[in-house]
Each structure stands twice: as C-alpha cells, then as structure tokens.
Amino acid sequence: MQKNWKDMLVSPTASVRDTVALIDRLGSRAAFVVDGAMHLVGLVTDGDLRRGLLRGVELDASVTAIMNAQPMAFNRAELTTVRVRELLEVRGFLHLPVLENGVLVDVLLTETLLAAPRRDNAVFLMAGGFGTRLKPLTETCPKPMLKVGSKPILQIILEGFRDAGFHRFYVSTHYLPEVIYAHFGNGERFGVTIEYVHEETPLGTAGALGLLPESVGELPIIMMNGDLLTRLDLAALLDFHAAEDAAATMCLREYSHQVPYGVVRSDGIRLTGIDEKPSLSFHVNAGIYVVGPDVRRAVAHGQRIDMPDLLMQAVGTGRKVATYALTEYWLDIGKMNDFERAQHDVVGLFGG
C-alpha cells in the first residue's frame, strides 16, 4: 500500500519516542518536522534516531534534539521530470520534500514514483463544463479547478493517474481554459506531459474525442470527467478491457434510492402486499470509460455527440461495449452538497 506523505509529519513538540513509533508503524524510514503553518522545520531519518540514542538523547526529549534542522528540500518550480528521476534513481534519494513559497506541499516518495509500471495509454480528462450548479463558486473558476482540500479537483485526478504509472495526458477545455493552462502548463512540474484540445462550442460528453490528434496512438485511452473523485483500480480496469477484447468499456456505479412511502402491490383492485419504504438499486454511468481507437475515430472533427449515444452507436454496428462495475470510492461533484462532502472525504482518501 502506498504511503500518504502527510502521515509522515510530526510537530516540533513531538517526542523522540513518538517519532520512533511513527516511523516504525509506517515503515517510512523518515519523518518530517513541520510547524503549524506547514513550514519544514527538520527531517528525522532512522539514522538520525540511532545516532541520537547513541549520544544519550532520552526518548522523552523533543524530536528537535535529534532532527536535521537543515534538510535538503526542493522548490516545486525547479523540479522537472528529469530532475526528479535523477534524484530518485541516480542519487538514491528516498524522499523529496517539495516546497511552494516556503510551505511543504508534497513529499515525492521513491516507492510511489518508481513502483507503478509505466503505462503508455493516454488519459483524456474532460474539463470544459460550466459547473452551473456550483455557482457562485464557478463564476470565475472552471469546476475542475475548484479546490478540494488544498488542491484543484483536476490535480487530484491527474496525480492519481500519475501515481498509477500514466504519463500522457490530454485535457479538453471550453469554459475559462486559461485557468487550467496557467496551473498545469505542459505538465512538466507534475512529472507528466499534457496536451490540450479546446472546444470552441460545447460538443457534448464525447465530441471532444474528434479533436484528439492522431499522436494519441492506437492503445485504448482512459476517458474521465474532470469533476470526479475516485479510488478506482485503473490497472484492473485496463486489464478487464483487454481481457474482454472490447471496443469500449463503460464504468458503472451502483446507485440506490429509497422510496419514502409504502409501495403497494395489488392484483387488480385486490391488495396483495405492501413494501414499506423499499430501496431500489440501479447501475448508473460513472463517467469513466476505456475507448478503443475504432470508437474514438467514429467521432468526426467538430461533431457534437454524447457518450451514451456514441457507445450505443458502437453497439449498433456490432462492436462489443463492456461494462465494468466500480466498487471503490466514487463521487461526482455535481452539486454543492457533493462539493462539501468532497472536502470531508479528501483528507482520508487523497491526502488533503
């Protein structure tokens, strides 16, 4: 299981004993000492712990007695993909603390960045919606760029794919695209490559497929709405798609609705039963797809079409469209109460 870097943080008031227990529990070999404003105060490695104990530092002493008060840290703007790989693979760093305006905003972990196999399938993120139901929050900010915790929704999505080994991203824009461009650029500071396609007029939920360049390649692409949070096992999804030899795969989510009344069963005018407030379950479209090259090319440049229509068109021509039941965490941030729930969920599931 990959570590959440925020679990590796300790306060300057923490004891050596507490820090030893934390490192032992996580198996992290290090802990980062931060103050209340998330400034990096120091670093404690398992080597620092051993040396401190040999010097006679008591277990109940403050962690500041053994920490390295001048740890090597890196400004986010300076960390290119090449630089990160050099530090992790060549120079042997285990952890790269990342600062932004002096504040610790990330810790890049060797086991996270190097463990996942590199996947050349392109990822297509749909980020052009208006987010009308989230006004006034979206009056000056596209919905995928609204912050959940400390990060925009779209960044959480992208980093989830990146940590699973994906590195090629395409992003579809329409509403306030400059906000997205300014934050992500070409993707280099996130360790990926990003290309953009822009919808001059809204083309529906599938029309942007017709704007993708042929450089996207022949591998199936994963297509995902830019307002979703999920812990979907992406490797399992791709493996399923390949095993089914499908032209496309649609992810499904179970949706339950409780009827607030007693539902009456009858035979004509004769009462046969009453189901009190039954719960009905359905499978709904989760907004995540695997799309093969034939289905992608079926969308003409500039054509307006929605994904359900495109997939049913494929079914109508004899192509196999598979369905994949998503059982992991999933949240569509469509309404204000969804946005508020995301703020609560993000800390435990996505590291805030």
Automatic annotation (TrEMBL):
CDD domains registered for this protein in UniProt: NTP_transferase_like_2
InterPro entries for the chain: CBS_dom (IPR000644), CBS_dom_sf (IPR046342), Mannose-1P_guanyltransferase (IPR050486), NTP_transferase_dom (IPR005835), Nucleotide-diphossugar_trans (IPR029044)
Residues of the CBS domain: 1-59
Source taxon at top rank: Bacteria
Keyword set, alphabetical order: CBS domain
Protein name listed in UniProt: Nucleotidyltransferase family protein
Organism: Chitinilyticum piscinae
